Amino acid sequence: MKILLISEFFPTGKDLKFSGGVEARTFYLAKYLARKHQICVITSRGLTSPKVEKMFNFTVYRVGPRRSYMATVGGLSKRIYFIKDAISFGTTLDIEVVDGSNFITHFIAKIIAKRKKIPSVAWYPDVWVGSWINNAGFWGIFGEILERLNLILGFDSYIAISKQTAQKLKGRIKGRIYTVPCGIDHKEFKTSLKKFPKPTIICVSRLAKYKNLRTLILAFAHLSTRLKEVRLIIVGTGPEYHNLKNLTKALKINSKVQFLFNLPRKELIRLIKSSHIFSLPSLVEGFGIATIEACCAGLPYVNSDIPAHREVTNNSKGGFMVDPREPLLFSKRFYELLTRKTLYNQKSKQAKQLAGIYSWQKVAKYTEEVYKSTVSRNL
Questions:
Q1: What is the pLDDT of residues 72-92, one digit of tens each?
Q2: pTM across the whole model
Q3: Which of 37, 75, 143, 252 stands the most exposed, by the fewest C-beta atoms within 10 Å?
Q4: Strand partners, 322
């Protein structure tokens, strides 16, 4: 098949710097599908990235104005130009099916499909209808309008990242819904590495309000009064960076908290494997790919008790889930894992077992079946 994948952001070069799960899914899907199919990707232009790039036997086309490689809800004008240019270029490609991966690219995919009279697939990490402004602030107005429009326009098939997302889609759309989770490239995590000498908690997340990192920082501040050597690493970018940084200063823990971003893939994996515990305190989550990657590295986790985390972790296999509004509960579980070796080893073993369920090869296989079914229904 000739398949077009559209992702607003996409890595370049060999470093593979992902700013979020959407880009990771698109990259690994393209990588594995390209072994059997003709794959091309349309994405936005980075500050230094080439317009056309060959990667793992697929082709990446970058269109629109140059912009920072940071997945944020803002940047309205550049997004509008990206939409226009992506539609214009996409209609020139020889393709059989098109896949959009977020509220921006859903619209692009639908218009391209309509003009070329080919089927379209919408990949849904989550449904934010009615929650955009609460989750994203002022710029959420744009997201709310566009997502509602996308749902009205409709797609031939929908791929939901989780059963929770599939349930949200039901009743809003007419197309077929398939549930295909995210995956892991297990080879990336095979290398053995020593743990940091000091107990370290790591979080990989966008720095946005709905990710609730304030709770993690408050929990860490409390934990550091009990375990003096403990450290926290937060990997990610987003609008809450300065607020979170200032919070660590106000709590006088800034020397123990490290903020990192735009890391090469290998460096990110090294940090995860060298850490002791993973944590993701999100209020809203579609899947939480960083959690299963941490599990693959054998890290127990302490996550927020929300539907997506319960589903992905098979009801907290390999870690703990606590009330996202209760920093002291996070601190309690961190302390237990770091001071009770038997408990830590038990959860670490469970985490690795959980990670074994997920793989990008399976994701590519299931997604390929969705594409084939969608194309055959439209012949």
A1: 545 778 889 999 999 999 999
A2: 0.92
A3: 252
A4: 304
